[in-house]
Amino acid sequence: MTDLTRTTLNRRHLLLGASVALAAPALLTRPARAITPAEIKSKGKLVIGIQGDNPPFGFVNTSGKQEGFDADVGELFAKELGVTVEFVPLAVANRIPALTAGRVDILFATMAMLPERAKAVQFSKPYVANYITLVAPKATVVKTNADMGKLVIGVPRASVQDAQITKNAPEGTTIRRFDDDAATIQSLLSGQVQAVGGNMFYVQRLNAQKPDGFEDKLEFTRLYNGACTRLGEKEINAATNAFIDKIVGNGELAKIYAKWMKVPMPSFPNSVEGVSFVVS
C-alpha cells in the first residue's frame, strides 16, 4: 500500500491509529542523553527541529533559508543562549522521533499541546495559538460533521488534523493520509481529495493558488503550540519557559505575531488539561 492509497477503516481503528500516531513514534527511538543550556553554549549551536513546508509557521524560502513564525522564535532563543542556530526541517510524523533520537535539541515545529504527545515529550509554556478546521471548495456543501461522510478527505499523517478528522467524521469516511501539509494542500488542488483537514492558514494558502475558491467549513478545536524538549530535561525546559515569558513581556512575540500571523497576539492559558509546562 502506497502513502497515498485510500483507506476506509473501522472507526475504532481510525481513532486508535490517529491517537497512537501522535505519540508512539517516540517509543520506537532510543532516548537521547539529556542536554543542558550549558552544553548547548559549549558547542556553540542550537539545533532546532522545525517544519519546512507549513507557512507561515515554518517554511524554506526560494533561497533555501528557513523562515516563518517558528523560525523567528527559534532564532531569538538561540540569541538568548548566545549561540548560532541550525534548523532541521521535519515532516509532521518525524518531529517527535527526531527529538527523542537526539537529532535536534528542541522543537519549534507547530507542536500542538496534546496529552498524548505530553507522554513522549516535554512541552514548554504556549507561545502560539492555532485552530483546526475542515477546508473545502466554496461550492461544496458541508454544514455538519455528517456531511463529511460523502467526501474523500486528505490530512497530514500523524497530525492534529488527522486525529480531528478521524474523531469527527462518520464511520466509513474515506480518509487519505499524506506525508506533510504541502502534499495535503496539493491533493485538494489537484482533485485527489474533496476536502482537507487544515489549520488556520490552509484557506490562505489554497486561495493563493486558486483565488477565492476555498473556505473553512467546520471548526473542530482551538489549540496552543509549545516548544518541545525531551522528557526529564529540566534545565532546558526552564530556560525555554523563561525565554517565552521574556518575549511575551517585552513585546518581541507580539511583533512576530504581527509579522507572520497578521492578527493580535492572544492571551495564553496558565494551564492546558493533560499537559505540564514544567518538568515534574
Proportion of strand residues: 15-25%
| Biggest sheet, spatial arrangement of strands | 9-8-10-7-11
Number of strands: 11
Tally of individual domains: 2
Query: How would you name the oligomeric state of the polypeptide chains in this document?
Result: single chain
Question: Architecture of the largest domain, according to CATH?
Answer: 3-Layer(aba) Sandwich
The CATH homology group name of the largest domain: Periplasmic binding protein-like II
Question: What is the helix tally?
Answer: 10
Major β-sheet profile: 5 strands, mixed
Q: Secondary-structure blueprint of this entry?
A:
Elements: H1 11-23, H2 37-43, E1 45-50, E2 53-54, E3 58-60, E4 66-67, H3 69-81, E5 84-89, H4 95-100, E6 106-107, H5 115-118, E7 121-137, E8 152-156, H6 160-168, E9 174-178, H7 181-189, E10 195-198, H8 202-209, E11 214-230, H9 234-249, H10 252-261
Parallel strand pairs: 1-5, 1-6, 8-9, 8-10
Antiparallel strand pairs: 2-3, 3-4, 7-10, 7-11
